[in-house]
Amino acid sequence: MADGMTYRAAGVDIDRKARAIQGFGRYLAATARPGVLTGHTDFGGLFALVPGRYREPVLVSSADGVGTKLKLAFLSGIHDTVGIDLVAMNVDDIACAGAEPLFFLDYIGIHRVDEKVLDALVRGVAEGCRQAGCALIGGETAELPDLYAPGEYDLAGFCVGVVERDRILDGRGIRPGDRLIGLASSGLHANGYTLARKVLLKVDGGAFDLEDRPPELGGRTVLEEMLAPTRIYVRSLLALRERVPVKAAAHITGGSFGKNLPRVLPAGCGAELDWGTWPVPPVFGLIQRLGRVADAEMERTFNLGLGMVLVVAPEDAEQALAVLGELGERAWVVGRVTDRPGVVIRR
What we know:
alpha+beta; CATH 3.30.1330.10; six-stranded mixed sheet
């Protein structure tokens, strides 16, 4: 029997996984906030709403991943920034309902447990949670050699937040003529990478090595540009709502403006954006030029420099811009709500 088959020989090393996750507790502790009732060794994460803080709380949840941006992490060996992306994709989604993120859990499926890789991933997730003000209260790590190629993994994140029922951002007060305020993205964020990689990366049939510095990128390497973490807007949006009436917020992710703006607009309304009212990061022009990508395809694939779009009344637009500037956001009035369904970018 001593020579019989073992789980380790089959490809899953339980002891190696146990060693790898031993240090995660310090990352969970660093993100703790009022309401956290559990440590990282429990079967389920526990979180209690603080008594008396909410009148009529509504829980808001999200689940999301990072997509093929992970390929940049595999190629470069840099794994922490995609952890920030994972948090951003979730917390910025629930922020669009007006919710404050409370807690976060992650799932990592990996070909082979690597202590350094896992530590970097969870460190990045914890940093994203710190930026968003939510607690990392648990997760799951699965060694799956039969599902993932050597050196590869996948990430999924799960977030729960809370908003008062009468403070839910649902867009019901939107009217034609309301202004659209765009908040600057940090670049590609985590969408459109299947196209971006095939245009930009030699390894995928594109133009550059990871360490190349195209003049358009202003001194940054291709890797630095493509691994820049997604901006987390939730603190700014929550703070803005304390001072300015915000009618709706749209997280500009997969499908860009055409998919995401209609999700917050009432029936019969559309959106018109004015090209040139915000600066488009040069990486998008580089992708368009090298890939000969049509304007319409760029507009339906990438955020083009706007990671979040807010809707406010015309009389509130100037104050909203001022407050966002105080909060460290670059923002512009980029368009308006119309009485014609659909999204149009006027060039």
